[in-house]
Amino acid sequence: MDNSGFELHEETPPSPSVKMERKKQEHPGEKKSRWSLLNIFLVCLLACAITTVLGVLVLSLVYTANTGFKPKYDASSQKHRAASVGNSVTSAQVDPKFQFLHQLAKAKKHEFPGGTIQWSRFRKNANEYQNKEEMAFGRSINAQRSKMTFGTLRIKSKGLRAPHWHFNANEHGYLLKGTAWIGVVDAGGNTVTTYNVTAGQVIFFPRNTVHWLKNVGTEDCLFLLFFTTHEELQTLDLDDTFFLTPEDIAARSLKPQGGVAFIRSFQRQAEDQAVNLPPNLAELVQNPNYQQSEDPLVWRYFFDLKGSTEFRFPGGIIQFARYVKDGKGLSTNERIYSEFLHSKEDALTLGTLRIYSNGLRQPHFHFNANEMGYVISGCGQVGIIVSPSLTTDFTIGVGDVVFFPVGTQHYIKSTCDEELVFILAFSTANQLQTLDMDDYFHRTPDHILAQLFFKKQDEFKKIPHFNEDQAINLP
Ligand SMILES: *[C@@H]1O[C@H](CO)[C@@H](O)[C@H](O)[C@H]1NC(C)=O
Fold it and tell me: pTM score, two decimals?
């Protein structure tokens, strides 16, 4: 089996025989670590028993010390949870920042005749990670039950991402460049919705809808894709299902002229056609028609993010493709998207974040969503606080993927001359709930802050209030 054929198996669910093979060799590293964890646990248990035997006095002393230590004890149990984000043995050898950062530009390129796919994702088989850093990230988004996987899809001019569907995820995409003609077939097959997308627009494919993406422009298309699962994405491509269906069954179902002989005349290509581009395309296809369905249908699957309301701050601009209750402030077409999004389980809120040179998206956290972002341009510095014992700052550049688990405090600073631009996804289709650092400082009474920080109450008047929201600020 050649390389790209193997890639297919990575993306599609394994056949029963492959499954069994996998089971046999399933994550030997993990099993070992599970065993050693069990051993440690047993040793701890034994130690506890010995402590008990040693005397009630000692035990109660330890107990008192623990109780007096309550806040720190809480912190360390949080730390334990955070550490499990990156998981056991390996995370000890990897910079903790890789639980929140994946350098996707360096990730393996899955090459197909018509384009390329790259992934930031969880792998069930640890051997499929390229390196420890990638494993730390994959395990982190899985352990946090992030409901997110990220990928980039590059399609050459005239190339086609084959019609396919995902068992276990909605898909939200952002077209960074190019023009594509999209098709979506909904349950029952009564409708196919087709439309053109151009750069700066957002697409939405609910779980198990059959969809395709055809590059109808002259340059490459680059899609930035978010899938709403932290497990391995399960996908079937239309050509694969056709060739895996027995010929007589396919003939009975499609009832073609010529019957089974016609079905037999189909030739399976040696290379995986997930993204395809036949060399003799002009010979095969004449007068393709790229029509667009009627508006009310189209806008369920499609949102003009670039053309949407800009939320402006002193240091940058935010735009959203999201659900808004009662459609307040949305155009008629935007409302169609908003309502459709809200009708689906586990849909995402997407957004672009632009931070001017030297701007700061101040420290904040989200009550109700994990966040994943991809750096489209610029560079910056990011900091995240998970717990007193897990805090990390790191630099980011084009092609990096960041992950901020729900509740963790994070900031983003733009550090070069050009704007820092992100596409962001939040794991909620409800309204995003956020709290910024200046807001929680202003809302906490001065006397509470004075007591907490051992500082005179008056001193806190030095922290000014501004008329304009400082979510993204400038010095
Ligand atoms: C979609 O784009 C293609 C290629 O640019 C064009 O031929 C076609 O007319 C467009 N369709 C619509 C409905 O705008």
Answer: 0.81
Last residue of a domain, one of 298, 315, 341: 298
191 Cα to the center of ligand 1, angstroms: 20
- pLDDT at residue 188, rounded to an integer: 86
Domain boundary among 279, 298, 317: 298
CB burial readout 113-135, b (16+ within 10 A) else e:
bbbbbbbbbbbeebebbeeebbb
Q: Are residues 285 and 385 in the same domain?
A: no
In a domain, 79, yes or no: no
* Pocket flag, ligand 1, residue 293 (CB < 6 Å): no
Query: 436 pairs with which residues across the strands?
Result: 364
Closest atom, ligand 1, to C-alpha of 291: 13
Position 34 pLDDT exceeds 90: no
Is residue 389 over pLDDT 60? yes
The per-residue pLDDT for range 14-24, each reduced to its tens digit, is: 343 333 333 33
Residue 196 CA to ligand 1 center (angstroms) comes to: 6
Ligand 1 in contact with 181 (CB < 6 A)?
Answer: yes
- Tell which one of 181, 297, 299 to mutate to probe ligand 1, the residue whose CB is within 8 A of the most ligand atoms: 181
